[in-house]
Write a structure and sequence with these properties.
heterotrimer; A alpha+beta (803); B alpha+beta (287); C alpha+beta (165); A: 803 residues; alpha+beta; Aldehyde Oxidoreductase, domain 3; Aldehyde Oxidoreductase, domain 4; 3 domains; 7-stranded mixed beta sheet; 19 helices; globular; disordered C terminus; B: 287 residues; Uridine Diphospho-n-acetylenolpyruvylglucosamine Reductase, domain 3; Enolase-like, domain 1; 2 domains; 5-stranded antiparallel beta sheet; 4-stranded antiparallel beta sheet; 14 strands; 35% helix
């Protein structure tokens, strides 16, 4: 492998178009297309008794209005339950357009098609839907009480009960020298990419084929879903993810109702049709995440070692379960983090509510699990009067214990076995970076009245889940290297990172490599971009494809140079005898030689025609076992996930009067194995931390009792601006993964995972009051202060605060 | 999120604007549009007509004189914020404007538009109220001057009548030995405040507090003005003033903060703003 | 039939005209009527800043303005920031150098905002940069590299032009 480009902070190749307005996002396409708008339910739970479209019919520019009654066959079927699981005993999904009952505000009831979006909204406003309100179930407590049901046939509103266990946790806790029991909660947030969802479909009636552009994290699976619903073979449906303005998880869900309806109507009308989600729609009709209540029992020894941990989690999954119980699985497994826990039992009850669906958002259940474990570590430390970092250290898996089997089943259905890592070193580096050991003195030296606090948190993140990804690499006769992979990009810099891998593997200049992602026309077999898997999965697949191409190039070049392929190397796109650049042939010529031609259409081709290429007359022009073309395809399918890890620490200051919380410093030490491009990885971490800060201090979904989302706008859903995000200090550790050829681990979600845990830890330290619920606002903290003044049990033990 | 249709008028003079407003009594005035257009895009407002005053050159005025600062209906926040002349006559304006949303919004939003919008969570209504300023309104029936105390009728409701156009606002100058300060707490920088205070403190010749007034945003249905002179006393006991304020305000809860916190915060901010204003007054007295 | 208005304005130095209803937002006018899709729309209520363009040199939200109001004015969009020969502006170069963008959706709004910011204040402090970009949301970068990009752009702008440039 070359070393010049792999591991270097190469500037991004996609930036040129983004910086000049030449990116092409979903709504930038289809200027002449008709526009769709949706009539959405204003009620959280109601029966539809009548839909009257007559008032909309005279709206200028109206083309069509559809309700569920209009949807034929499979188009009107319930949306698929994408990830079935034995524990999901009562999985339910919605219809593309509501049939009889709506179960959350924002559920689509009718689709309006008009000449432009203004007119479509005019018409949608005039569609009159009569509802008979049903009692809404909002919030985890109401769902668990089950006085009312979200689905008549789901008793107790319980969709799933998932149990994960190793050993006898109850017995271990009972036998432990110390035990604690407490409740934690964490509120909802959402991915909230700045570009919403969107679908643009073009039906070609002459060809009987469909091209669909979708702002998705999985184009191949969207294609499969559309093909199935519309009764078309896969080969007649092309799905392209154009430039995508952020995903963060929400765009992995598919098919969205709109992804079925827009292509269907485009075919029916034989007109180009586009739907661009607006911000208000995104808040009420895409997806949310995070909301959980966690009841914890923990038993531990005098050193703070956890002997038994029993966690009962109630998880609010919203009105439907299209994405199965991935979040509960991830929470209950990744909760263990870098620790050796004696006996463990997690029981997750996944509950229906009359709110928007809950599907993975960056971190996908890990932030909740890490929050649970790290709050538990702090509790143990406070109880014992020990340093919080020391208690963590006492529980860490040691470097010589890998592979480490946690004894559970992970989200890919495979055993939860950590492949590699060095957790004590992570902790050491984080302590050093934030100045953990000197903080007590720093606090003592701060001027009177200032309230400073320090906190930390560790996590382990399963990345690169299967089943597989593939890569295709082709070198053309101009020497350009075309790399494609099926998974999609939403800003992660894949065009750059994958080009770095290909350039390093092939020995070609980086600028000769051109990468395409998320386009079924170029690569049809893929899973998608989620779970920090793109670099691991497609990166390795592309490397494997490159190795095939390189091998083939050397075989052909060896023929031409009359050399042994084992003596050849590739440098700057030229195949040559190792140590002798004079005996060489450029890859573009090898590409010519790889494809014997009958017809010459240019000079390069002329060199490859039958009368020009001198293969022995006794052998076929394409050697037996070979294929024409200098191309190769590779697939990477891991036995199981690879586990990245990290430690974050923060120093906060709280205002003694206004209870405002400021993050003074934020430090991240992380380990994602070998780095392809450190600049890109660092960018991922910054962005993740910013989202984590949002989740810790600002963002929540404020539903009222009737199921109305009160803050469905950027005015009231408080995504951090530059003024709210601290400067992030980073440190790296590289323990390569032994599981894949490149030794890499995923990095996409790392930044966000422990932030709520870390900030809770630091605020608790600054205030001396127990923080059990996140996010925490100034009002929340003020209220906590007042309560703690009357109730000593809410105060953190004096003397145990520092460290 | 596209606005509904409306009749559009783009007058070049105030008289033309008044004619257009007279002809469309349920029409709305479009100036900076930073509050109105979001409401239109969300279809929370659907006026029959919009009278776009952006082409009326005579309204793009800003005059700072001995008596105070007069701001025309087209003067953008950014212009007023940056005006050294305005700051010299009435510093509270600039102090408050720095808290209005974000710089890009202030490039377009207008001072008079913000007053006419009458949002009790906005900065400028509180400033006009605490200073005892006025708004000049014109209609086809004539002109009138509306004192701040009468302008704000309720949340998002001004006493401007159908057909009336707010053509300017007047912020009176400060008496001698007077300092001002503006402080607010918002969830994010640039958000509407959870609570905010515009404080004006005047000292007497012996440098004792002669008068202390505070205008509040975010804690009442219309901008609240409290006279704190008595509570603070001549020595400026701002903690006592804060306690007094906490008893007088009755804020509402919303998703960003509860009433109890807002009441508490109003006290904290009162203390901070008054102390800063008093310090400023003292500095001026020493000049 | 909704009344249409002939809107004439200068975009990136070129006079442009289109006939649109009064309610056409400037953002939609630029994107859909003129085909300049570099200006993005992220919220349509003036909070995210993706749609920021320069109106007579000052950054404004194009989603909070009607095209009819912009008639007669000069608008600069992200497509107009580079030199006429295509050379990227110092601000564009700095964002690339400092990895100040990821998905690229908010980027045009930041570029317009920062271009105006540095014109007014060529050497902003860190706090001035934060204040200057405080009305633009980015969900990818955590802003750190954007702040770095602004300082870098200030450096590039202060460098004397190379001979021949």
């Amino acid at each position: 492998m070359g070393t010049r480009v792999f591991g270097e902070p190469v500037r991004r190749r996609e930036d040129g178009r983004f910086l000049t307005g030449r990116g092409r996002f979903l709504d930038d396409l289809g200027r002449g297309a008709l526009a769709a708008a949706f009539v959405r339910s204003p009620h959280a739970h109601a029966r539809i008794t009548d839909i009257d479209v007559s008032g909309a019919l005279d709206v200028e520019g109206l083309v069509a209005i559809y309700t569920w009654e209009d949807l034929p066959g499979r188009v009107g079927d319930p949306l698929p339950l994408l990830i079935p699981h034995p524990a999901l005993t009562h999985g339910r999904t919605g219809y593309p357009l509501a049939r009889d009952v709506v179960r959350h505000v924002g559920e689509p009831v009718a689709m309006v098609v008009a000449h432009d979006r203004y007119l479509a909204e005019d018409a949608a406003e005039r569609v009159h839907v009569e509802y008979e309100p049903l009692p809404p179930v909002v919030g985890i407590e109401a769902a668990a009480r089950a006085e009312h049901l979200v689905h008549d046939d789901v008793p107790g509103n319980v969709g799933a009960v998932l149990v994960q266990e190793t050993g006898d946790a109850a017995a271990a806790i009972d036998a432990a020298p110390h035990a604690l029991e407490f409740r934690l909660s964490i509120e909802r947030s959402a991915s909230t990419p700045l570009e919403g969802r969107g679908v643009y479909a073009r039906w070609d009636a002459d060809d009987g084929s469909l091209r669909v552009y979708s702002s998705t994290q999985t184009s191949t699976s969207v294609r499969a879903a559309i093909a199935a619903r519309l009764g078309l073979p896969n080969g007649k449906v092309e799905v392209v993810a154009p430039d995508v303005g952020g995903g963060f998880g929400v765009k992995i869900v598919h098919p969205w109702p709109e992804e079925v309806l827009v292509p269907w109507a485009a075919r029916l009308l034989d007109r180009e049709l586009k739907w661009t989600e607006d911000r208000r729609e995104h808040f009420v009709s895409a997806a949310h995440e995070r909301g959980q209540v966690q009841d914890v029992r923990v038993g531990f020894d005098d050193a703070g070692r956890v002997l038994g941990l029993d966690v009962r989690i109630r998880h609010d999954h919203g009105a439907y379960t299209p994405y199965g119980i991935i979040i509960p699985i991830v929470t209950s497994t990744q909760l263990l983090g870098p620790y050796k826990i004696g006996a463990y039992r997690a029981e997750v009850t996944s509950l229906y509510t009359n709110t928007l669906i809950v599907t993975p958002y960056r971190g996908a259940g890990r932030p909740q699990g890490v929050y649970c474990m790290e709050r538990t570590m702090d509790r143990i430390a406070r109880h014992l009067g020990r340093d919080r970092a020391d208690v963590r250290a006492a529980n860490l898996i040691q470097p010589d214990e890998f592979p480490y089997d946690q004894g559970l089943l992970f989200q890919d259905g495979r055993p939860l076995i950590y492949d590699s890592g060095d957790y004590p070193e992570l902790l050491r580096k984080a302590r050093e970076l934030i100045g953990w050991d000197g903080f007590a003195a720093e606090r003592a030296a701060a001027s009177r009245g200032r309230r400073l606090g320090i906190g930390l948190g560790l996590y382990v993140e399963g990345t690169g889940v299967g089943p597989y990804e593939g890569g295709h690499v082709e070198i053309d006769t101009a020497g350009r290297v075309h790399v494609s992979t099926g998974l999609t990009s939403q800003g992660q810099g894949h065009e750059t990172a994958f080009a770095q891998i290909a350039a390093a593997e092939l020995g070609v200049p980086l600028e000769d490599v051109h990468v395409t992602t998320g386009d079924t026309r170029r690569f049809g077999y893929a899973v998608g971009t989620f779970a920090s898997r793109a670099a691991v999965m497609s990166g390795n697949a592309i490397a494997l494809a490159c190795r095939k191409v390189r091998e083939k190039a050397l075989r052909i070049a060896a023929d031409a140079l009359e050399a042994d392929p084992r003596d050849l190397d590739v440098t700057d796109g030229v195949v040559h005898v190792r140590g002798d650049m004079s005996a060489s042939v450029p890859l573009r010529t090898v590409a010519v030689l790889s494809n014997p031609l009958r017809y010459a259409f240019d000079e390069e081709a002329a060199a490859a025609t039958q009368f020009a290429v001198g293969r022995p007359a006794t052998e076929p022009p394409v050697a037996s076992g070979e294929e024409p073309g200098l191309e190769g395809r590779g697939y990477y399918s891991p036995v199981r996930s690879t586990f990245a890890s990290g430690a974050h620490a923060a120093i906060v200051e709280v205002d003694p009067d206004t209870a405002e919380i400021a993050i003074l410093r934020y430090a991240v030490v992380h380990d994602c194995g070998r780095l392809i491009n450190p600049m890109v990885v660092e960018g991922q971490i910054h962005g993740g931390v910013a989202q984590g800060v949002g989740g810790a201090l600002y963002e929540r979904m404020a539903y009222d009792e009737s199921g109305q989302l009160l803050n469905a706008s950027f005015m009231d859903f408080l995504m951090p601006y530059a003024t709210e995000v601290p400067r992030i200090e980073t440190g790296h550790l590289e323990t390569p993964s032994p599981l894949n050829p490149l030794g890499i681990k995923g990095a996409g979600e790392a930044g966000v995972i422990p932030v709520s845990a870390v900030i809770a830890s630091a605020v608790e330290d600054a205030e001396g009051v127990r923080v059990d619920a996140m996010p925490i606002s100034p009002d929340d903290l003020h209220t906590l202060r007042l309560r703690a003044a009357d109730d000593p049990s809410l105060r953190v033990r004096e003397g145990a605060r520092t460290g | 999120m596209k606005p509904p249709p409306f009749g559009y008028h783009a007058p070049r003079t105030v008289d033309e604007a008044l004619d257009a407003l007279a002809a469309a009594p349920s029409g709305k005035v479009l100036a900076g549009g930073q509050s109105l257009v979001p409401l239109l895009n969300m279809r929370l407002a659907a006026p029959s007509d919009l009278v776009d005053i952006n082409r009326i050159a005579e309204l793009d005025a800003l005059r700072a004189g001995d008596g105070g600062v007069r701001v025309g209906a087209l003067a953008r926040h950014a212009r007023v914020e940056r005006s050294a002349e305005a700051a010299a006559v009435q510093p509270l304006l600039g102090q408050a404007l720095r808290h209005v949303a974000h710089p890009v919004i202030r490039n377009r939003g207008t001072v008079v538009g913000s007053l006419a919008h009458a949002d009790p969570a906005a900065e400028l209504p509180a400033v006009l109220a605490v200073l005892g300023g006025t708004v000049e309104a014109a209609s086809s029936r004539g002109r009138r001057t509306i004192p701040a105390a009468e302008l704000f009728a309720g949340p998002l409701e001004s006493s401007l009548e159908p057909g009336e156009l707010a053509v300017s606002a007047f912020f009176p100058a400060l008496p001698p030995r007077t300092g001002t300060a503006f402080t607010e707490t918002a969830r994010r920088h640039g958000d509407y405040a959870l609570a905010g205070v515009a404080a004006v403190v005047t000292l007497d010749e012996d440098l004792r507090v002669r008068a202390a007034r505070a205008g509040y945003l975010g804690v009442s249905a219309t901008p609240l003005v409290l006279d704190l002179s008595g509570a603070a006393g001549p020595r400026g006991d701002w903690a006592a003033a804060a306690a007094h304020v906490r008893e007088r305000v009755d804020p509402e809860s919303d998703i960003h903060a509860g009433a109890a916190y807002r009441r508490h915060l109003t006290g904290v901010l009162t203390e901070r703003a008054c102390a800063a204003a008093a310090a400023e007054a003292l500095r001026k007295a020493g000049e | 039939m909704e009344e249409r208005f002939e809107v004439e304005l200068t975009v990136n130095g070129t006079p442009r005209t289109a006939s649109v209803p009064a309610r056409r937002l400037l953002s939609d006018f630029l994107r859909h009527d003129l085909g300049l899709t570099g200006t993005h729309v992220g919220c349509e209520h003036g909070v995210c800043g993706c749609c920021t363009v320069l109106l007579d040199g000052d950054p404004v939200r194009s989603c909070l303005m009607f095209a009819v109001t912009a008639a007669g004015h000069e608008v600069t969009t992200v497509e107009g920031l580079a030199a006429p020969d295509g050379t990227p502006s110092p601000v564009q170069r700095a964002f690339r150098e400092c990895h100040g963008l990821q998905c690229g959706f908010c980027t045009p709004g930041f570029l317009c905002t920062v271009t105006a910011l540095l014109r007014e204040n060529p050497r902003p402090s860190r706090d001035q940069v934060l204040e200057g970009i405080s009305g633009n949301l980015c969900r990818c970068t955590g802003y750190q590299n954007i702040v770095k990009s602004v300082h870098r752009a200030a450096d590039l702008l202060s460098e004397p032009a190379e001979p021949g440039e």
